[in-house]
Amino acid sequence: MKQIPNRLKVGVPKTLFASYNLSYWQRFLTLSGMEVVFSGESTKETADRGGRLLPHEFCIPIKIFMGHILDLLDKGVDQILLPRMTDRNKTNFFCPKLIGLPEIVKFSLNLEEKRFFSPEVICNGLNPKVVRFPVTAAASLQQMKRVEKQALKYWEETLDNCRKQQITLPEAALKTSLETSRETALKISPETAGRGKLKQPEHHLCVGLLGYAYSLYDPFINKGIQRKLDKLKIRVYTWEMLEPETIETSLRGLKRPIFWNFGRMLLGAGLHFLKDPAIDGIIYVTTFGCGPDSVAAEILNLEAEKHQKPFLLINLDEHTEDGHLFTRLEAFADMLSTFKEDNAV
Amino acid sequence: MAKLFVGVDVGSVSTNMVVIDEEGNPLAAHYYRNDGQPLQVIQEGMAVLAESIKPATIAGVGTTGSGRLLAGAVLGADLVKNEITAHAAAAVHFHPAVQTILEIGGQDSKVIVIRNGVVTDFAMNTVCAAGTGSFLDHQAERLKIPIEEFGELALTAENKVRIAGRCTVFAESDMIAKQQFGFSKAEIINGLCEALVRNYLNNLARDKQLLEPIVFQGGVAANKGIRAAFERELKTTIIIPQYYHVMGAVGAALLARKQWIRTGKDSQFRGFADLNIKFIPKTFECNFCSNRCEIIRVEQEQKVIAVWGDKCGRYSESISA
């Protein structure tokens, strides 16, 4: 193999936008000739270190994100991937904190802009698209344009896997990366991928699990919720297992459009789950103080009442104790069981 | 020999124990303050319980409450259940028509919606313990009034005082201000009861339909001032069940009974005699992955009898097998 001298080391924080399009970014950067460095798993330290840099009222995912940035800087990366998530579509926006990520990082760490690798990105539903490439010595514009197409194709394959095999995004990302090459294989722990050590437990309940990828697939934020659900013999269905058309069709029934990109998908998936007789109930995982969720989750809660489908809102924050979470999930599972058949013990 | 079922509810403030017979009637009920020593309270309480009942077969043991895992391990429980399901089971047993359960305990409060004898919705306080038993305890202490007299005193209030109920810290500063305006203790306590009820209804019961009959249980149900405030707010009478203070334990016992009826399995209960053996809980931080879980391990004579706290199941799944 040809050795490329001094490849540009680009750090990818494994949270927020990258929890969605991890495989896309990895492909894009690698094929552009850059060396990709991932941040480690979220820990207490990640949250503490990140939190210290931010105003108190920031939500826990952003605090954790800052911790990931610090981790990448510790790893000695040349640049950090910080896409500028813009909205060229008038009915589709991101949360202001996602839009402002480059600024949040720049001003809280006093970093020079040359440390950022910031392509301008739009995201229509699930597919990211770079609309402006940064100028870099590592790759030419033509090259980046070409590999971006390949990365997108690869990402679509990953999503396709989610739908076809009814698996979660990290599970699919792991699978797709293993099928291609070892060099670009993603290191995803089974914990992150969602399934624990329990091998195919006999699920007797089906639940629609909703939440942003950065909470749903970060066991530090969600206190291992998928594993807990596994223990309760609950099979989980998530938004990425649905066809985009299914989500769009469900959203059409709303009186007013909802315009947050990721929140929209959750709501659309939730509305579909409400109508799906195979789904026994819905669990919506949110983090304390989330603005878009205060609307999306509330709409879904009201709709759930109309459909008489059990709905549980799990509001996560910085607490480390997870007993309360299990109490709620078990009570919810008991409730669904009694609904289904009178076998709740 | 008669078959009996034991229910133990280890909460943040109290540990409650009950014994029910095969028909589900309570034969004994005990309420103990934990004083930070739940393990000791369980052992001593079980000894008292053993004396208070006639010789019988313990056919099932159920535990609930935030300390249910510890209690379950120590007793050899047949069923370890969350407190929401337990409270609902007990309320429905005594009041089959119940549609709403208000429950306020030491450190958490919940509302449970029941339709046709089945839980259809519930909510539990999330980020803050304002408006729970501990909060009232603290305020009673500050005003130098025994908590047992707190509710009675509230009923004697002549004037209304409005106290901020959203947050404990705000409530306290509000209380101090109102004291300085010259309001009596009774009026301030009544204001506090109303604030607590307002807070409860606004936060927990916000989007729930609270249909009658409404049952109010948990330690705080002993407080007449709170009950009166609930009745004023909801404009209806509230039922306080006879065993309001130990309903979680009753529920755990009832669920253990239900399980026994269904499976007919013998109880794993250690027996009253074996409970005096020393149980040693230990904690350590697992360094295997970045989660750094705090693992809690209970040992009995060098033998590990229970482990929990691990997110990945590395320890807990190796023991339960």
Residue fraction in strands of chain A: 5-15%
Distance between the termini of chain B: 32 Å
Q: List the domain count of chain A as a whole number.
A: 2
Poorly predicted spans of chain A: 194-199
How many distinct beta strands of chain B? Answer: 13
Structural class estimated from helices and strands of chain A: alpha/beta
> What strand line-up does the widest sheet of chain B have?
3-2-1-4-5
Question: What would you say this structure looks like, in words?
Answer:
The complex is a heterodimer of chains A (345) and B (321). Chain A is α/β, with parallel strands linked by helices and 345 residues long. Chain A has 2 domains: 9-158, Rossmann fold, CATH 3.40.50; 194-340, 3-Layer(aba) Sandwich (Rossmann fold). Helix content of chain A is 48%, strand content 14%. The radius of gyration of chain A is 20 Å and the shape is globular. The N and C termini of chain A lie far apart (61 Å). Chain B has 3 domains: 3-88 and 248-276, ATPase, nucleotide binding domain (Nucleotidyltransferase, domain 5, 2-Layer Sandwich), CATH 3.30.420.40; 98-240, Nucleotidyltransferase, domain 5; 279-320, no CATH class. Chain B is 37% helix and 24% strand. Chain B contains 10 helices and 13 strands. In chain B, β11 (279-285) and β12 (294-300) form a beta hairpin. Classes of the chains: A alpha/beta (345), B alpha/beta (321). Chains A and B meet through α14 and α15 of A and α3, β8 and α9 of B.
